[in-house]
Amino acid sequence: MRVLVIGATGYVGSRLIPELLSAGHEVHAGARDIAKLADFWWGDRVAAVEIDVVDAESTRAAIGEDTDAIVYLVHGMAGENFSDVDHAAAENVARAVRAAQVARVVYVSGIIPDVPEEELSEHLRSRLDVEKVLSASPAVVITLRAAMVFGGGSTSFELMRQLADRLPVTVVPDWMQHQVEPIAVVDLARAIVGALSVDAQTGHFDVGGGEPILYPDLIERYTELADTRRLQLTLGLLPEKLVAQIASWIADIPSPTVKALMESLQHDMVAADTRWRGALLAEGDETVSTEDAITRALAEGVDTPDEVRDSLQRWSSDPEWAS
Questions:
Q1: What's the CATH number where 80 sits?
Q2: What total of structural domains would you count in the chain?
Q3: CA dist., res. 209 & res. 224, Å (int)
Q4: For residue range 96-130, what is the model confidence (pLDDT) as tens digits?
Q5: pTM above the 0.90 mark?
Q6: Which of 156, 202, 245, 284 is exposed most, by the fewest CB atoms within 10 A?
């Protein structure tokens, strides 16, 4: 199958492409700056495709009639109008999918809590909107909704790590007392590969590691495994925007991204069911536990080339703020 990965240079894309190659797919790696593909160990094993999804002509040219399937990994979390940009990009992709008669699209989104849509964070509303736009195309569109994606170098994991490591006391606002269900990036990659061929109609799967946990307890588990235990205090009356702003000062991650992720902790971020395991994973496959994911993410492959390094470890191609 000829698979176009849009957002190939992102964290999930970088770990997905080796899985696609291993499964025998012909991979076309889509990026705005194709020169960046050379930073990845698999760069010479894929076909480079220049694509800017906010440009309709660029998107149409990149998604040709020889494309069997698309994996869409683009998310905007920067700028005041990121949701408008996300919507326009999704419209461009949907139109190109229709014109090229692409058979399947796999989109990675976020867990959507069971609350009225107006109560969702802007980040999650935007992801849900993109899901709706793509799903209106004639292709079979499989959306994988994930909460925290764990692995060294992932935005969710690094935000937790940097805040836990750098604060002498872990201060937890009372509104953050919600459950999350992390999923290891290797399991998400396997789910995407499975979604390319699953016999299903347009719809979504919630994908999670199977271990819902309160976010403060997750931080505590991390500090135990990292041997950086901290006193943890739960405080009320801490405005969400203030907490997000302070977190953006402490972490090296771009500020708009930090704020968007922090605001999504207002609700439980837990998979509604486990259908994805039977549908998308090979029989007998087990998912990585939260404890194993943290342990592997913390391991440093000293002088080990990315090609043979654990996908849950940080890679040299990951952003500088993850080092």
A1: 3.40.50.720
A2: 1
A3: 20
A4: 999 999 999 999 999 999 999 988 888 899 999 99
A5: yes
A6: 284
